[in-house]
Amino acid sequence: MNYSTPEEQGIRSDQILNYILKLEENRLSTHDIIIARHNHIIYEAYWEPFHKDFLHRMYSVSKCFVSLAVGFLVQEGKISLDDTMEQHFAKELANQPDKNMHNQTIRHMLMMATAKTPKKWLDEPHPDRVQQYFENDTSGSRPSGTLFQYDSGASFVLGALVERLTGKKLLDYLRDCFLDEIGFSKDAYLLSCPGGHSWADSGLLCTANDLLLVAQFVLNEGRWNGKQLLDSSYIKKATKKQIDNSILNTEEWDTHGYGYQFWRTHDNSYFFNGMGCQFAICVPDKDLIFIYNGDNQGRPGAEKLIIDNFFELIARTANSTPLPADEESLLRLVQFSSHLSLAHAIGGNTSLLTEKLQKKTFFLNDNPMKISKIRLKFSDTLGTLYYTNAQGEKELSFGFGENVYSRFPQDGYFDEIGGIPGGRRYRCGASGAWMDTHTLLIKVQIIDSYLGNLHIKLHFDGDRVGIQMVKKAEAFLTEYEGFAGGTAC
Prior knowledge:
The chain is 25% helix and 26% strand. By secondary structure, the chain is an alpha+beta fold. A hairpin with a 2-residue loop joins strand 2 and strand 3 (40-46).
């Protein structure tokens, strides 16, 4: 994809800068942004330590890839969208008494209109996630195809169906169908689930530019360099409203309907949507694409802020013809974007307590984190938290006014296979800030094949300490939730 100035494609540089400032003022954890129009990239930025080649976890953006794979299977005549699960998973359904699950179709699963409330598979270990899905024994059922309920497991099962029918891993199949043709990264990959299938509903890791290329392919309705690779009629249906997804009848960013694994949003637009704010928004009426990746788990309203302001400041102000050059505004945008870095804790860099604290070890009462003792060390703009938990001695360094990058000191988190303990530690950025003289906040951001964040608040009162830990992450950091108290020796 070629590069261009914003003005050459009818968008003002100062409006893009206003948008970036809005995100920064709200202290969002942004990792990268790309804006493209008329097949030209007009803005591309990476917040340090992220970069152009970083393979970013896309979470449920992966579901849109599943939808495209299903479209190719339909095009090849291998399936019909009205095929039932009974036709493809009779063995797995053998002990399922609920006929609604037998009768739900591929179309229903694409629409998130399945028969039963899904279980949280990461909370209930099982050797085969496909079998686990069809064994769902929750009470309550409804005819599939009637009502929207987000069902991540249905997307996973559709990915497993693709692999069963093609004999290929999902991403390999898609590479053969179109990803290689459009220049998708060779290093991109999908995590796996118990049972051997790709983690098709959530496990994709690729670059921001990879996501842009796929979004452009979808916006092109399956065409690339003049070749129609995927039937345009399927993509039109996939990105069109197939089912209502708002029980409150609101006009929120995510309540404009749902297609085949694609969400609808403002101004006749649709988007790829992943947990933590992984977005690829396609605005057909403006020939405009917006890519955003970050980790804003635990930030209420972050999605609304990102999406609503994109439409208000950029999409709706886009001109149908080129604008006069504005070198001054473009220079300001370029200069500001060259100094972007991952958000860090905000507050004071020093406290009158630091010298006293360095001489103390705090022994904690029984607590959910199973942390028995802590101590702190400070030097210039760096701090280190030493603690002992159920795994043993731990050490976490953090910066004041900046992030310090290291490996988070907890072992046994998932790696290549979701739900299965792995053998490496996740990369993280950690920062600290004094909220007042007696209260220290440590902010940890996991920036690995899994994303998450942890906030540790410590309040010191003489020889006493109170600790609160709050985590926002899917199925990990669970050892870091709750309150603790203790006293210095």
